[in-house]
Request: fold
Amino acid sequence: MNACCAECGNIEGGGVSLKICKPCMRVKYCNAACQRKHWSKHKKECKLRAAELHDEALFKDPPAKEDCPICFLPMPARLIYCITLPPATISSVPIYDFAKANEMLAKEDTEKYYSCCGKSICRGCLYSNIMSGNKDKCPFCNSDCNKTDEESVAEMMRRVEANDATSIYMLASSYYQGLHGLQRDEDRAIELYIRAADLGCSEAHHNLTGVYHDGGDLKKAKFHLEAAAMAGHEIARYNLGIIEYNAGNREQAIKHWTIAASVGDYVAMHELRQYFEKGLVSRKSIDSALTAYNSSCADMRSEARDAYIRYAIDHNVTE
Reply:
């Protein structure tokens, strides 16, 4: 049967083209006037279905992490102190025994961006490159890294012209923070963050969250926080759990933290452990979350990354 306009009954076809109601994706209209006339009858169903679709998208499995282009291991969101990592496939591991992040390193960048080729590599590969005596060479394209701010910005600009999302994000951050000799320009930074976000950069969505939150636009802040989480940003996912927890939505918070833990976020795993101790998360659920968490940490672990963490701790290295 052909679709028909929910207001006037016009049937699609024979020159009649209907447009679907975007929030609910359930009914169609032949024009905006019909949609406005039908709204009083449709709005309750529309809002309910739109909320269902939103939750389906928000809580679906996150996309796979991006890999380091050299070691091909998933990039961690935080520098996990994997030296203490317990077996990843044993669900009976005590809930107190899971990989932690070293406090000194927990907020350090987990990857290094190179403006020459627009690539970001993990700290393990960076460490291996330095130890091999190639500190001043890009480990991906082997170009000279001893550049002036002007040269670095020019390289970023070329990558931005090629529509490279990571480089657009890095240039936005440079404008936002006034780095690499650039004058701080928040408007230009936001423009570039939005461009990178539209290309799927989860970090750009996450940074826009902070920008709009600080500016008092909480609706846009939450939109970008959810977009970052759906794009696989586990810290954004953890923060959504905090928001839901503070709003009294315990079940929603647990869902967010379970997803974040499953991709290796230790803070989310810590929250779930606390809920388990309060009797709000079952042993089966905590075992499942812990197994996924440890497995994800194991996937991100390498000898080079462990070596970097040991080196950073021993030498008090922070950037």
User: Anything to note?
Assistant: The first strand starts at residue 19 and ends at 20. Strands lie at 19-20, 28-29, 80-81, 100-101, 111-114, 119-122.
